[in-house]
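User: Quick one: structure for sequence A, then sequence B.

Assistant: Sequence A:
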Amino acid sequence: MDPIIATRDLRKVYRLGRVEVPALRGVDLTVQEGEFVAVVGPSGCGKSTLLHVLGGLTSPSTGSVLVDGNDFTRMSDADRTRFRRHKIGFVFQRFNLLPTLTAQQNIAIAQHIQGNGFNPHRFQAIVEMLGLQEKLKRRPYALSGGEQQRVAIARAVICEPKILLADEPTGNLDSENSQVVLNMMRTLNRTFRQTILMITHNPEAAAVADRIIRMRDGRIISD
């Protein structure tokens, strides 16, 4: 079976005036469908850049990126945008919820943006799994940090993306809420076989994954 994510000699160099700053220095990575992978490493090691390249949010300088059989290096920005909308869900450290919408509206809007309309069965299944039944009418300011992150996860997976990319999803949470969110991500992985790639600097967060990849100085040093 072909991997759902595959990179070969992936490199990313940022240019600041005349200065070149290498963020990725030849990353070879494969992720199989249904895996839960954690990428760990110190700040500045390139792990967030890797996630942005895998999500089509930024282009690599050189190397190849295959996501669900699609070569990102051969796609236009518009094509990558369409691909992300249908195939990839994102969860960030900052919850990025729309403050004027209720939790229910924040989740449902993702289905409308994708263009397939509202799917009540999928909505109900995700809401129940994430324990949000009693929070749907609340706006973000009336939710705890852990509840806001659960809404953000629901929004990310409501359209059944093949891949969930999570960048420090517990970075703004206390230890109790962090564990709740991690357990729910694990449940998503096991129940729906959701492929998850999670960036974290927290070894305890990484421990819920099936596989831990360690990065340093833009390279994978262990897998």
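Sequence B:
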Amino acid sequence: MRDWISYWDSDHPIYVNARHFDVHYANIADDIIRLLPGKQARVLDYGCGEALHADRIAANCATLYLCEAAPTVRTRLEERFGKIANISIVTPEDVAAMEPESLDLIVANSLLQYLKRPELISLLKVWRRVLSPGGALVVADVIGPKQSAIADALSLLRFAAVNGFLTAAFIGLVKTTLSDYRKLRAQLGLTTYDEAEMLKLLAEASYDAARLRPNLGHNQGRMAFRAQKNPAISG
């Protein structure tokens, strides 16, 4: 497997069972709903993955764009949500071609670790262009350089205990250790940022940004940030 997109487009063991799969995406949907600025909001979930509960997000906004780079995942999104009028399944290229100032909220959750720094810098420019005045960009589940795999595992086990899949989580962690994910992570690495570095990167991309708490999802050892266009900078 050559890259992260290929990995997410494959049959991978990240979700240990159907319960984990469901409650993970339910949790993310709840968190995104809390971020919505209103029923008229135009929202982009960039790198949305399977987005199992995107219909609940769409019920609380005007338009929801689900952007996913993995072709097989996009096909499943179309099958799942294609008949919902205010949900559109889009590619990264579609987002780049959107009209300026056409979105009120952009969420990029658990994405940055799979992007090289130049890729993120390019995306920040795209997102800024399509973000409306007063709109917000939320980047979440950002991994800090001191965040350990053990801390991530413990966070998952706590989440599993609360949601009734603890035994499956133990087994899943063992499988993940032996899986292509671990091999690909060793080969490609994950991109990490500390808080100051992330804020500096957003400022250099002409955003006003601050740390957002809580993080989206179950892992509160990771970070989230909320950013808006700096009104003093045009373009």
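The first strand starts at residue 42 and ends at 46. The chain is about 45% helix and 20% strand.

User: Thanks, that's what I needed.
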